[in-house]
Amino acid sequence: xxxxxxxxxxxxxxxxxxxxxxxxxxxxxxxxxxxxxxxxxxxxxxxxxxxxxxxxxxxxxxxxxxxxxxxxxxxxxxxxxxxxxxxxxxxxxxxxxxxxxxxxxxxxxxxxxxxxxxxxxxxxxxxxxxxxxxxxxxxxxxxxxxxxxxxxxxxxxxxxxxxxxxxxxxxxxxxxxxxxxxxxxxxxxxxxxxxxxxxxxxxxxxxxxxxxxxxxxxxxxxxxxxxxxxxxxxxxxxxxxxxxxxxxxxxxxxxxxxxxxxxxxxxxxxxxxxxxxxxxxxxxxxxxxxxxxxxxxxxxxxxxxxxxxxxxxxxxxxxxxxxxxxxxxxxxxxxxxxxxxxxxxxxxxxxxxxxxxxxxxxxxxxxxxxxxxxxxxxxxxxxxxxxxxxxxxxxxxxxxxxxxxxxxxxxxxxxxxxxxxxxxxxxxxxxxxx
Length: 434
What we know:
Elements: E1 15-20, H1 31-36, E2 47-51, H2 61-75, E3 82-83, H3 94-107, E4 120-123, H4 129-145, E5 154-159, H5 162-168, H6 171-174, E6 185-190, H7 192-199, H8 212-225, E7 228-231, H9 240-251, E8 257-260, H10 263-271, E9 280-285, E10 288-291, E11 293-295, E12 298-301, E13 306-310, E14 315-319, E15 322-326, H11 328-338, E16 339-342, H12 345-360, E17 366-376, E18 379-389, H13 391-396, H14 398-410, H15 415-422, H16 424-432
Parallel strand pairs: 1-2, 1-8, 2-3, 4-5, 5-6, 6-7, 7-8, 12-17
Antiparallel strand pairs: 9-10, 9-16, 11-12, 13-14, 14-15, 17-18
Helix pairs in contact: 3-4, 15-16
């Protein structure tokens, strides 16, 4: 098996949801764990992370490790996602690493009844690749100490330093060597807060920098090493639109997963990478997108950054601050640069099935046509575009279908939600295409 092949059952992780393991001052310090492990359907994450590091006070972490054991041993069998507790670790602190190791030993002890429901551990604050190997060695010791199969516990790391970012570029050379078990790596998770601190970055407002380079590098490293890339937390939990924009930007980089801080964010993140139920047209002007509305089969633009007037010589079109006079063919060409279609799940399935049929008939490429009547300031124009489908196009557009199939296979608790969203017929066709 090559390094860049996926070694785990899950090919995608949409949601990475953390929960404090022990809440100080409560009659039941495990109350948040008990609440989280009961989540189901779209509110339940793909990966649940009982967080015995930053989310839990240092004086509560021993109790937190015990709470992880108790809650997961009792209810872990019914949790629909994967469970990956986060333990303490730090590249510069042997004492912190030893504490995390002790908690891993305790949590993974089969006599405590939790490890059979645990898929791995999350290691924060890693440094260079040698530090990753130290963590991997602790995993191997834990597995051997408790008679577990080597590599059975997945290891995920949080990229929170420049040294960890550089280490990602060395994974292809290190994974697979007989001196380590780094094939156990599962997720690469960005931690922009501590990364900002490590980089000594300053912004005028004190807000976090967006760090697009970090997210790109994490996605690239995950692709090269057969791992899964997950973005860090989006702290403004009330800014739903901002969260969606962040996920859209990530998805264009191949980073389909994101940290979720609340069940509400989990729902948004679970749905975001899935294709929409209904296809729709967009106007893309000056880097901004506006969705058109449909009225009796006509796509209507009612924004103020695009105007169209019919004249005696043709048409006068304004796009942003640019205005030009065009004939009918010229107008259609210009509008094709403005409007774009976002396909639904059904559209993608239909296109893939059509290409598969053409390929069976011996055709290497076919043209797919998308047409619509667009109304701007009361003026209607027919626009259509042809897109050539070949094997490369087919493979690229298979990603959302593969994602959908991965979700359906691994999250049976979401079957009803998916059927309600798309319809049972579309779900069935999506599971059989590709």
